[in-house]
Amino acid sequence: MLFNIFQKDFYNGIQIVEKAVSSKSTMTILTGIYIEAILDKGIHLIANNLEIGIEYWLDAEIKEEGAIVLPAVQLTNIIRELPAADVLFKADMEHFNVNINCLNSEFNIKGFEADEFPQLPEIKGSYSLKVPSLNYKEMIDEVKFATSNDQTQPALTGGLMSINDNSINLVTTNTYRLAFSKINNTSSIDQNINVILPGNTLNELSHLIDNDNNNSEDLTMLISENYIRFNFNDIVFISRLIEGKFPNYQQVLPDSSNTKVKIDRTEFSKAVKRVSLIARHDTNVVTLIINQNWMDIKSNKSDIGNAHETIEIELEGDTQKIDVDANYLMDVLKVLKEDTIVIELIGSLNPLTIKKQINGDYIYLIMPVRPGA
Amino acid sequence: MLFNIFQKDFYNGIQIVEKAVSSKSTMTILTGIYIEAILDKGIHLIANNLEIGIEYWLDAEIKEEGAIVLPAVQLTNIIRELPAADVLFKADMEHFNVNINCLNSEFNIKGFEADEFPQLPEIKGSYSLKVPSLNYKEMIDEVKFATSNDQTQPALTGGLMSINDNSINLVTTNTYRLAFSKINNTSSIDQNINVILPGNTLNELSHLIDNDNNNSEDLTMLISENYIRFNFNDIVFISRLIEGKFPNYQQVLPDSSNTKVKIDRTEFSKAVKRVSLIARHDTNVVTLIINQNWMDIKSNKSDIGNAHETIEIELEGDTQKIDVDANYLMDVLKVLKEDTIVIELIGSLNPLTIKKQINGDYIYLIMPVRPGA
Questions:
Q1: Model ipTM value
Q2: Between residues A301 and A212, the one the model is more confident about
Q3: CA geometry: angle at A151 spanning A227 and A55, to 5°?
Q4: How many CA atoms, within 13 angstroms, populate the side-chain half-sphere of residue B262?
């Protein structure tokens, strides 16, 4: 096995598949990256932690074919630190030793037999869809922060993707808050699909779509019973699906409100952040008081002091007073991009919802904290 | 107590004195910042953790005089997050409550009685010196990383500043390595001075001199038996001195060598970093082999592999082979600014020294690792 590759290209490829390397595995080989050189095709990189698997193809000058697995930590560190020049990669296929040469640098690293590396599952997909990758990424970003950390309810640690003929919906909730986002579906499917994607899959997909320079392309999905496969910009991303039942979120979404507030997102975000500096440490609760033309935001921590902010709003409907977790507010205010957002309320014991001003494709819902709780 | 101050100015002052705030103190008041408003003078900020104390003066529009202590964490967070506008600071001197107003933001925080704040020690100094602050900072930076972390030998956790009629010398060592730097002394003194500055004092002084925009000014020092006071750019910085005996470092500095090597600092630094990626994990040892026109740098970790770099050098004297800690090399190569540095050797069991090519005002010494150790 022998090939020549430019250092920056090699490092770029390693960084992409690295996200799927197992950090602490009982199978040592999963802490490695699979590297295969194929004549006329290039270098094939694979990492697989059994939840996520990533494949990537690199252009390289292949002189001898072969495959080997190298420990990811050493490989990443070495290729990152090499000078920006041609790297000669030579593997002794009998003893699985790899020799890496670049200008005046030479490394010998022990590898593993490529045959022992677990192949990525083959997705015998019943459903195939195509969406613009940037839209898909935006949908993920608008909900991924609202997953649960509670491992005893695995379904809530992921996001429910439900697909019908018109739309692709993604929902996350930890039962105290819920985020819902929706994009158009132009692929035709013959029945509704409901799958739960792991939280880590949402995070890594978002990173990888971001890191790419050519985001105008489409992303394609292939969905089977236990796995989903994403293809975008020469990356193949395979994820296990979470088994289990996702709560019936539609039940929770309010279908009407008594109060609609238009507010500047950036001003609101800064004010909540300041007021939360003096909030009850355990729950970080702030009180929103909605008056005719302005909102008061208040907090009080008996041993420290109190804080008070005032912001202009546009009110439609009743005045209100509600206690909410400041962190839940700040999370969504950071992610949305709209200058003006809409807050809807029913009463102090009902959920508060945040929507975009323009369309109804996004709903964020926060359960109130009971006054005095 | 009542004053008006621009948010950015107030925050800048807080950031300067904050370095001397106690993070975990049995005296709660030391976790606060002392704020005094004096007519025609401005705002006086003080923090004091009993090892370091910092005073700073700020311009402000004083309306009523007074002094109070506020918890540093809350004060810093609040002033940092306020909009860039005028801040009205009002203290109720009876109940030690402070009201902070800025545009639509209002905070009430509980403070402490100013009288309870321990005054900074008065330095009845016998010795006063003046040096250009940037030179003093450079001297600190060249040695501060080589202090010891061993709290059972307090003297080694600091730096020995020894002053004679010609020069100010600063030395640090952990007994495995030593850093020595020297600047000119133009102040006349009637006897040699030897004091040990705490490691933390060296770090914070370096930061504060750096953060300042107007570095062309002089720094003045006033030294007493137990304390040292630095004045620079409106900052007063007081530090306790470490009691104890610093080892006789002059004994250790070699007065001759068998080998002199001129080497490119950046190339050497990158090569050592790469080779150390595959070095014995516990000690991070690399082998330097000095030949006629080049240096080989090698490492070997039996279960991972090995690494080898080659760099051009200019040799004067004998060829050599020596084992050293790669971290000790990288520390100094990061700090020096010279393109070319000089390495001097006696033999594989004697210390290796690194000097600047031009002058003899800097010496860095590393004890070798015994081969096979």
A1: 0.89
A2: A301
A3: 30
A4: 7
The CATH number of the domain holding residue A223 is 3.10.150.10
B306 and B259 share one domain? yes
Q: What is the predicted pLDDT for the residue at A68?
A: 98
Same domain, A200 and A268: no
| Chain A residues touching residue B108 (CB < 8 angstroms) | 305-307
pLDDT tens digits along B16-70? 999 999 987 788 999 999 999 999 999 999 999 999 999 999 999 999 999 999 9
Question: In A335-345, which positions are buried (b, 16+ CB within 10 angstroms) versus exposed (e)?
Answer: bbeeeebbbbb
Inter-chain residue contact A108 with B305, CB threshold 8 Å: yes
Same domain, A215 and A268: no
Structure confidence at residue A304 (pLDDT): 86
Same domain, A53 and A104: yes
- A residues 306-335 lying closer than 8 A (beta carbon) to B: 306-311
Q: pTM score, two decimals?
A: 0.92
pLDDT greater than 80 at residue B359? no
Partners of residue B105 in chain A, C-beta under 8 Å: 271, 274, 307-309
Lowest mean pLDDT segment, chosen from A120-134, B135-149, B306-320: A120-134
Summarised one tens digit per residue, pLDDT across range A134-145 is: 999 999 999 999
Counting the structural domains of chain B, the total is 3
A106 shares a domain with A7:
yes
Which pLDDT band holds residue B213 (cuts at 50, 70, 90)? low
Question: Does the beta-carbon distance from B107 to A307 stay under 8 Å?
Answer: yes
Phi then psi for residue B89, to 5 deg, are -115, 120
Q: B60 in a domain, yes or no? A: yes
d(CA B347, CA A78): 31
Domain boundary pick from B209, B227, B248 = B248
Domain annotation covers residue B119: no
B266 with B240, same domain?
no
Q: Would B258 be classed as within a structural domain?
A: yes
CB A101 within 8 A of CB A87: yes
Query: A372 or A332: whose pLDDT is higher?
Result: A332
- In b/e form, how buried is each residue of A131-154, taking b as 16+ CB within 10 angstroms? bbbbebbbbbbbbbbbbbeeeeee
A136 and A243 together in one domain: yes
- Say how many Å lie between the first and final Cα of chain A, rounded: 66
Average pLDDT, chain A: 94
Q: Is residue B178 part of a domain?
A: no
Domain span at residue A214 reads 127-161+185-248
Q: Indicate the residue type of B93.
A: M
Do residue A74 and residue B305 have CB atoms under 8 angstroms apart?
yes
